[in-house]
Design brief:
The complex is a heterodimer of chains A (about 120) and B (about 120).
Chain A (H helix, E strand, L loop, with lengths): L3 E2 L4 E5 L4 E3 L2 E2 L6 E8 L6 E7 L7 E2 L2 E6 L4 E6 L8 E9 L7 E3 L3 E6 L1
Parallel strand pairs in A: 2-12
Antiparallel strand pairs in A: 1-4, 3-9, 5-6, 5-10, 7-8, 8-9, 10-11, 10-12
Chain B lengths: L3 E4 L2 E4 L5 E7 L5 E7 L5 E9 L2 E4 L6 E3 L9 E3 L8 E8 L11 E2 L3 E5 L1
Classes of the chains: A mainly beta (about 120), B mainly beta (about 120).
Amino acid sequence: AQKITQTQPGMFVQEKEAVTLDCTYDTSDQSYGLFWYKQPSSGEMIFLIYQGSYDEQNATEGRYSLNFQKARKSANLVISASQLGDSAMYFCAMREDLYNFNKFYFGSGTKLNVKP
Amino acid sequence: DGGITQSPKYLFRKEGQNVTLSCEQNLNHDAMYWYRQDPGQGLRLIYYSQIVNDFQKGDIAEGYSVSREKKESFPLTVTSAQKNPTAFYLCASRMRTGASRHNEQFFGPGTRLTVL
């Protein structure tokens, strides 16, 4: 089974609007971490936001927030007030802490296009 | 500046030749990783190393080899046994001290390998 599932291969959003990128995960660990990365066309991976499984509040970093619904095993990324520079691939990733906290699992990504 | 360097940015090789991709970090990170990314796809783990002189196979290790003789360096060799080596290769690192709040992976700029 896939550890991380991103069901939206591509999305469009109008500049200045908010957009939600979906991510569901599969783990039996009680302790785990969830990450979102942005990959512009240059190829570099840029860390955006982190959510720990025991964090009671949803993580926020500037215009990025993570809508963490533990019971549903979802960790959606919300980008508020989209900008043209947000056009990129976005990857959700998970680290499981019980067996191997150094191994990360990545989803297949969502390509976001921000329209002017 | 602290960071991860990968060289070269673009690499062309003839079929049947082994090729070594360089990855160096000066972040004093313990764990290092190699990922492969095919066009429009997510990241797949090739190998990772948690400490010097130790490494583990990832999900697609066949046809690849690594070494970890120094903390700063984690070179990846793409051998002739790798049937379809043309891809984008990303190196990453992180602190080994595991299940703490952040400890995200930091990524290098990547090497685009084309086998002719």
